[in-house]
Amino acid sequence: MKEKVTEKVIFEGLSKITETTSFKNYIPNKVFMNLPEPLNQLASQFSDREKDIVLISSLGVLSACFPNVKGRYKDGNLSPNLYTFIIAPPASGKGAMNWSKLLIHPIHKAKQEDYKRKLQEYSRTQDREANDKPQRISKVIPGNVSSSKFYHHLKHSEDSMLMFETEADSLSNMLKQDWGDFSDLMRKAFHHETCSISRSDRFYEIDEPKLSLVLSGTPNQLQPLVASKENGLFSRFIYYFFDEVEGWKDVSPRNSRGGQSIESLFKEAGESIKDLYDRLMKLESIDIVMNELQWKRFNSEMKLINNTFLNDKSDFISITKRLGVMAFRLIMILTMLRNISRVQVDSLVLGVENSDLETALSLIKYLTDHSLKVYDSYSNEVKKLTVLDRQILAELPVTFKRGEGVDVARKLEMSERTFADRLNSWQDEKILEKLKQGEYRKLPI
User: Fold this and answer.
1) What is the DSSP string of 57-111?
2) CA distance to 3, 49, 265, 267, 342, per residue, from 261 (Å)
3) What Å distances lie between residue 144 and 108, 149, 160, 182, 187, CA to CA?
4) What is the pLDDT of residue 23?
5) Which residues contact 232 (CB under 8 A, 6 or more apart)?
6) How far apart are CA 70 and CA 65, in angstroms?
7) pLDDT band at 148 (very low <50, low <70, confident <90, very high)
8) CB-based contacts of 94: which residues, under 8 Å, 6+ apart?
9) Smaller CB count within 10 Å for the chain: N or C?
10) Which contacts (CB < 8 Å, 24+ apart) does range 295-299 have?
11) More confident residue, 427 or 259
């Protein structure tokens, strides 16, 4: 179901009025059809925006839960860590992301309890000089943290860390401070590059940092965090953006289809993830591998997305290339969930199922449009075109007849009715002009 509303709006955080087209366009059903457990059951408890938000935020949280898991991408190894950012107006339902935090809570709680136990043992030690005081090891850290403390947490973490913030300005306020600016660490950690910091009383060097970010905020909280689209941090995020405000919803307590509360379902899933996490911590490594045909499919799809922007939006190319990294990480997450019961031995190689490859590619193709919307919000005058719009226009000759356009649209899986709507909107937006009945000419974008 797609409902289109075109209107002039103020994009919060910008000093200009932009033309915004709002599509109530949710993540495609085919993404949800083949999700592994527990994602499938958890997502099925929600609908519309909440369903999308729970999926995106859960993937972000889970990306920090698979220690010693790696996959070969180009010339190096990647861990599954994702940076996700949900952007929407106030009172729009973003709070559904809080459910996903329950998936990592058992791991975080266990680390806190282990630290307290070690601290008590240390306090009972007679010869403290011969024993190092235990370091606090956390799994989840807040956005309200100093740069030095952030490095400290990463240095002493046993594996990946998660930063989870429902108000992005908590993180933005830190980055404004000289003592709190760790944006370079976030950029480097995305690729597991060595990070270091030197202060008067301490020196930290972190090899292969592993960090996941799950953030949400309003549009006016984006630019304080990512000052410009040229900022390297921008291209490291998966964005999910929508601009409609949620109406009143039923606030009576909800049970799942099996009679459990939604909270108990997430807690139960969290215990399952912790069990997997504990087994993974005992292993040397698990390698996620794709076969030659799967890599061919992966490269073909990502090349198609990348080439869409070569001619008229080449500055978006850096983002599409990092979306490839994110797509591969999504494949890793889905593969680990698919093989929870197989993680039993000292070392393991896990192959990727075609269904998980297709799910990840479908999701990243959908999310490319969200990155494009957020990217265009930084510009004053932009043409509001989706990836599919650009792909159709790229295949059409400069002058074309309606029937030719319909053939191209159908080939790229756009219905004739939707294409007819596009022809009208493209004329309004000066993307093409009508020469005569049933004949059009493309204009420079």
Assistant:
1) HHHHHHTTS-TTEEEEETTEEE----EEEEE--TTSSGGGGHHHHTTTHHHHHHH
2) 32, 20, 6, 10, 29
3) 18, 10, 18, 11, 18
4) 44
5) 187
6) 12
7) confident
8) 53, 86, 88, 166, 216
9) N
10) 297/357, 297/361, 298/324, 298/327, 298/328, 298/357, 298/361
11) 427
C-alpha 39/C-alpha 202 separation (Å) is: 42
Task: Say which residue the tokens 């292993």 belong to.
Answer: 283
Structural contact between residues 84 and 333, judged by C-beta atoms closer than 8 angstroms: no
Type of residue found at 80 = P
CA–CA separation, 157 and 137 (whole Å): 6
Rounded to whole angstroms, how far apart are CA atoms 407 and 402? 9
Q: How far apart are CA 130 and CA 109, in angstroms?
A: 29
Q: Which amino acid is at 12?
A: E
Please report the pLDDT score of residue 166 as a whole number.
87
In this predicted structure, what is the pLDDT of residue 129?
65
Distances (CA, A) of 391 to 173, 306, 342, 388, 414: 39, 10, 41, 5, 11
Cα separation, 319 vs 314, whole angstroms: 10
pTM for the whole thing?
A: 0.85
| Residue 5 binned pLDDT confidence (cut-offs 50, 70, 90) | very low
Mean pLDDT over 224-238 rounds to 85
Within 10 Å of residue 247's Cβ, how many Cβ atoms? 7
Backbone angles phi, psi at 172, to 5 degrees: -60, -40
Residue 379, phi then psi, degrees to nearest 5: -105, 150
Question: Cα separation of 183 and 150, whole Å?
Answer: 11
The secondary structure of 103-171, three-state, reads CCHHHHHHHHHHHHHHHHHHHCCCCHHHCCCCCCCCCEECCCCCHHHHHHHHHHCCCCEEEEECCCHHH
91 vs 388: CA distance, rounded Å? 30
- Residue (of 172, 162, 143, 316) closest to 235 by Cα position: 316
**Winning range, highest mean pLDDT, from 11-20, 75-84, 159-168, 341-350:** 75-84
Q: What is the pLDDT of residues 261-297, one digit of tens each?
A: 899 999 999 999 999 999 999 998 999 999 999 999 9
Say yes or no to pLDDT of 8 above 80.
Answer: no
Encoded tokens for 367? 């999310």
3-state secondary structure 229-285: CCCCCHHHCEEEECCCCCCCCCCCCCECCCCCEHHHHHHHHHHHHHHHHHHHHCCCE
Cα 346–351–354 angle (5° rounding)?
155
Per-residue pLDDT tens for 358-380?
999 999 999 999 999 898 888 76
